[in-house]
Write a structure and sequence with these properties.
CATH architecture of the largest domain: Beta Barrel
Number of domains: 2
Structural class: alpha+beta
Strand order of the largest sheet: 4-5-6-7-8-9-10-11
CATH topology of the largest domain: Lipocalin
Radius of gyration: 42 Å
Shape: rod-shaped
Helix content: 10-25%
Number of strands: 11
Amino acid sequence: MDRSDGISRRVERVIILKSGVSKFTISFNKSGRVTFLCVVVSISDSHIFQIKSIAMNKLFIGLLIVAAGAGIFYFFNQRTCNKPPQDSISKDLLIGKWKAIAEQTAGDSAQPIYQYEFQQAGTVLLSLQDSAIADTLHYEWINPNQLVWKENIADSTGKTYSVVLLTKDSLQLQSKDSITALFIKAK
């Protein structure tokens, strides 16, 4: 904007940048000297929100990647943990005397401790720890990792257990209704 009286001249320029609007106002006197310089910089609100939006998008994408990684880890970990052992079970490890520990409670010492003696012929002698009287059950392998317990050898049905763990000193069986029985090798 120029003044026609010759006393001063004023020039205004407006520059629009990506980061906002800058306005320069310069005033000159008759001799050409700058008498007034004003620089106004205004950053638009939309630019601030745009910067925040980009940061939030990056954060959200990062959290999605972390959640997807955790989900994949959980999925594959569950598949390997819940998978019953295939052919790694040595059926000979089952033969011998086992003490049931899952039936015992921590504070109840009056709870009877049962012993199971698995024999090669497919019979199980069930007795109290120090008792001479034993009850006879029968077992049969139906898969490499499944047993069927029968009250009578002639029974066509019995209770099916999956062998979750069988080592030289521990045995873990799980029924179809997810009841777990734990045993340790008796000495």
